[in-house]
Amino acid sequence: MSASMQGKVVLVTGGGRGVGRGVALAMAQAGAAVVVNDLGVSLKGDDAASISPAQQVVDEIAELGGQAVADGHSVADWDGAHAMVQAALDNFGRIDAVVNNAGNLRDVLFHKMTEDDFDAVISVHLKGTFNVSRAAAPHFKQQVSGAYVHMTSTSGLIGNMAQVNYSAAKLGIAAMSKTIAIDMARFNVRSNAVAPFAWTRMVESIPEETPEQKKRVEGLKKLIPEKVAPLCVALCSDAGAKVTGQVFGARNNEIYLFSQARPFRTAHTADGWTPDAIAERVFPQFANDFYPLHKSGDVFTWDPV
């Protein structure tokens, strides 16, 4: 089956740059009309907004012969999220898919992280994903069809340094995606999460102070943002109609399907557990299967292809 988006309308948040820009362009090339949402702010998301990045992508789509409109609302705002969905309805008459890509970063070591650092990232990534998804939900329900793609991250799925806020949001997004898939299945609506590997301004902020950090950054520079887009298009197309509740990764020419948490070791006692018994029996029994404190880079150790 062809992964065409002909006749469909897609909202792409954070669509003015990086991965979002690649997704918006790919959706248009596949035949979709696109609402390109981008607040146009700095990486921290704390300066004046400009719609120009979104408009630039709209202009690119127009040059390709496609249809698109720009939107400058914040995903962190409930009314703003509804406004961007309404923009799809007002301009194109329907909405068929949402790609939740908007994001920000406030990387700080946990013991130095402020409440504002935490709240700012949670508001955009986790609450923003909820806001936009929820705004589209009644329309998906009414038309008995729809697709969500939510951007998660290996920072949440595996772990990373100085990203307590970002990791919490991104793992929360993976869980949110799964539960949306469960809740909306009866309406023929599907929901999947994608962990994108890409060199964008989001990762340009990674420090390069040590040889290890420099080596990591050199590897990240090989990751092409536009390589994430084909998976997003396929998931939103009719060809992805039976794919829901999954967590994928896209890393240049590689696509991953991530495992989801399931129990794999069990300890049982007929008499019930005491703290001492747990310490004496359970911890040693499970010790060989404890996960080490891996960071994302410790797991993905091979060069991207």
Structural features, described:
This protein is of the alpha/beta class and 305 residues long. 43% of the residues lie in helices and 13% in strands. It is built from 11 helices and 8 strands. The protein has an 8-stranded mixed β-sheet with strand order 3-2-1-4-5-6-7-8, with helices on both faces. The two termini are 26 Å apart.
Produce a short descriptive summary:
The chain is an alpha/beta fold. It has helices at about 20-30, 50-65, 80-90, 115-145, 155, 165-185, 200-205, 210-220, 230-235, 275-285, 295-300; strands spanning about 10, 35, 70, 95-100, 145-150, 190-195, 245-250, 255.
| CATH homologous superfamily descriptor | NAD(P)-binding Rossmann-like Domain
What count of helical segments does DSSP give?
11
Radius of gyration: 20 Å
Q: Which structural class should the secondary elements be placed in?
A: alpha/beta
Percent of residues in helical segments? 40-55%
Task: Write down the overall mean pLDDT.
Answer: 93
> Count the strands?
8
- Categorize the overall geometry: globular
> Domains counted in the coordinates: how many?
1
Strand order in the sheet with the most strands: 3-2-1-4-5-6-7-8
CATH top level class name: Alpha Beta
Low-pLDDT ranges: none
Taking the sheet with the most strands, its summary is: 8 strands, mixed
Determine the strand fraction and express it as a percent band.
5-15%
CATH third-tier fold name: Rossmann fold
Give the termini distance in whole angstroms. Answer: 26 Å
Give the topology string: H per helix, E per strand: EHEHEHEHEHHEHHHEEHH
- In CATH, the architecture is 3-Layer(aba) Sandwich
